[in-house]
Design brief:
It is found in: Cell outer membrane. Belongs to the OmpP1/FadL family. This protein is 4% helix and 57% strand. The chain is built from four helices and 21 strands. Strands 1-3-4-6-7-8-9-12-13-16-17-18-19-21 form a 14-stranded antiparallel beta barrel.
């Protein structure tokens, strides 16, 4: 039988929990100020910089929150003017954190978060149905950590990161007269984070943090074909029409430098610079057990898909004004870069250069207990899709908004 090559754009992103973008929703208070990092009011700082635990103004601090994230992507073929729009469900990233001062100069903590993950659903008959029809991605970070206060104004900290992820992908395979699904709920990897936190004066906070790359390994993925059973033997499928695959996706490292300055006792301004090394994500290799759906001349079960990502920079600025003892108003802006060019546009995980505006409110309900509200509105820039490799051309637009509710408690 003629070798069958499945559209590689599908498989290129099968484990791409970030999809070339990172979901910046790990702290409601932080989101309200453009997701800036140099804040040590409670345990939510643990995701951004483990060293910040040393400056939390409580021996025991807990924080938790959740978000709603909604996005819509529109694709239009500029030759036929036919357009398609996603109908994706609301994303719900969550986080929880705890920090405890074991000694005056030693703090330990734990952070749980969902920094990567989304669901995108295109019409089943859209122009890119061989790339993706529906894709659900989830990733969870579990981070135990420790921080040491080196002096009254400086600390250092580190964390171990265990990442767990899953993927559920549907797409059409017209060459076979049907569709397929790729599933893996056991992908995992590990990494680390380190940071320094400095308070040279009461007015200035400086946060310097690094999060290592993580290789997410899928050793037990399953590909299920919805095609004629007569084709099963030619593809090496079992009686259920399934095969297995292995893959490793490199999640990238991230550098962050953050500053917070108190202009007055009630008014502070924060700024962040983030660098993500996406340029290590040049290609993705998937190794199928039997199915000859690859693109390598020496082994038809191996599929190598080019990604050609580039490293990105994100600039953030936020502010907070303490209206009175109970309420604090917050606002921010950041510019987010896409990690790939128009020629490498990924329909399964769309990414755009975006201007994002945020705002929020902090409420001090009673001593030590706070409620935070935040929202964000993104304005992605229109892209002209020119992906020669996937034979995919047209115009892509998007819109997105976020909202969140967070709770924090500094016990004692």
């Amino acid at each position: 039988m003629k070798k069958i090559v499945v559209t590689t754009a599908l498989l290129a992103g099968v484990l791409s929990y970030a999809g070339g973008f990172r979901v910046s929703l790990q702290g409601v208070k932080q989101l309200a100020m453009a997701h800036t990092s140099a804040h040590t009011e409670d345990a939510s700082v643990t995701f951004f910089n483990p060293a910040g635990m040393s400056f939390i103004p409580a021996k025991l601090s807990v924080a938790a929150g959740g978000f709603g994230a909604q996005s819509t992507v529109t694709y239009q073929n500029m030759s036929t003017l036919q357009s398609y729009e996603t109908d994706s469900p609301l994303g719900t990233p969550i986080y929880a954190a705890i920090a405890y001062k074991v000694l005056d100069n030693v703090s330990v903590g734990f952070n749980f978060s969902t920094p990567f993950g989304s669901t995108i659903e295109w019409p089943s008959d859209w122009a890119g149905r061989e790339i993706v029809q529906r894709l659900e991605l989830k990733a969870f970070y579990f981070q135990p950590m420790v921080s040491f206060k080196l002096s009254p104004w400086a600390s250092v900290g580190g964390s171990y990161i265990y990442a767990k992820g899953s993927v559920n992908w549907d797409k059409a395979v017209t060459q076979l007269g049907g569709s397929l699904n790729l599933t893996d709920d056991q992908a995992s990897g590990s990494g680390f984070g380190v940071g320094f936190y400095i308070k040279p004066t009461e007015k200035l906070d400086v946060s310097i943090a690094y999060r290592s790359p993580i290789d997410m390994k899928a050793d037990n993925g399953t590909v299920s074909f919805n095609i004629s059973q007569a084709l099963y033997p030619n593809l090496g499928l079992d009686a259920a029409g399934t095969d297995s695959f292995k893959a490793t996706l490199p999640l990238v490292d991230e550098y962050t430098v953050g500053l917070t300055y108190k202009i007055t006792p009630k008014w502070l301004v924060s700024g962040d610079f983030n660098y993500s090394g996406w340029d290590r994500y040049n290609e993705l290799t998937l190794d199928f057990e039997n199915a000859p759906i690859g693109n390598q001349p020496n082994d038809a079960t191996i599929l190598v898909s080019p990604k050609n990502f580039k490293s990105t920079r994100t600039y953030r600025i936020g502010t907070q004004y303490q209206i009175n003892d109970m309420f604090a108003a917050r606002a921010g802006y950041y510019y987010d870069e896409s990690p790939y060019s128009d020629k490498n546009f990924q329909a399964e995980t769309p990414s755009f250069d975006s201007n994002v505006f945020t705002a929020g409110l902090g409420i001090n309900v009673f001593k030590g207990f706070g409620v935070d509200l935040a929202g964000g509105l993104a304005f992605p820039k229109t892209r002209m899709v020119e992906n020669d490799y996937n034979n995919f051309y047209g115009q892509a637009k998007a819109k997105a908004y976020y909202f969140g509710l967070g709770l924090s408690y500094n016990a004692f």
